[in-house]
Amino acid sequence: MKKGWQWPVLITAALLFTVGANVVMFVAAGGDPNGTVVEPDYYRKAVDWDRTMARRAASDRLAWSSSVTLGAAVDGRRDLRLALRDATGAPVRDANVTVTLIHNLQASTPLQAALTAREDAYAAVMDAARSGQWEVRVEARRGTERYTTSARVEAP
Asked: pLDDT tens across 48-85, in order?
């Protein structure tokens, strides 16, 4: 046998190992429903970016503020409470409020709910058993007024 024959074999083996490892990682990532999550209808949102920014500016002009809390999970459900205040600090009443909850580890399954008015806040019971970071997207409408915001909330 010729001297140095092992180098082409070793280089070929290293390349085959690299390709095999990449295939394994690709299959593992493709099997996770949260591994390839993208924003729903992201193309339409990109096309409507100017309209989105105009809505956000109108929402900012309202000068409303919100505070979201998630209670402790009981039997796989937890209370969501949203305190919504106007520019003077008074509670916003008679609004139609909806929320979308997205957990960082389960982004492929967002939760949505319409909140009901309580004494000084809006509330709902959500099927949100997982603790950790949640993104809460809020939309409140009262007459022609529209308020949108999002927040990160830590669930116990």
From this structure: 999 989 999 999 999 999 999 999 989 989 999 999 99
Q: Mapped to the 3 state alphabet, what secondary structure does 20-85 carry?
A: HHHHHHHHHHHCCCCCCCCCCCHHHHHHCHHHHHHHHHHHHHHCCEEEEEECCCECCEEEEEEEEE
From CA 116, how far away is CA 80, in angstroms rounded? 11
Pick the CATH number of 42-155 from 3.10.310.10, 3.40.120.10, 2.102.10.10, 2.60.40.10: 2.60.40.10
Q: Any idea where the domains of the chain sit in the sequence? A: 42-155
Quick one: tokens of 148? 């949108």
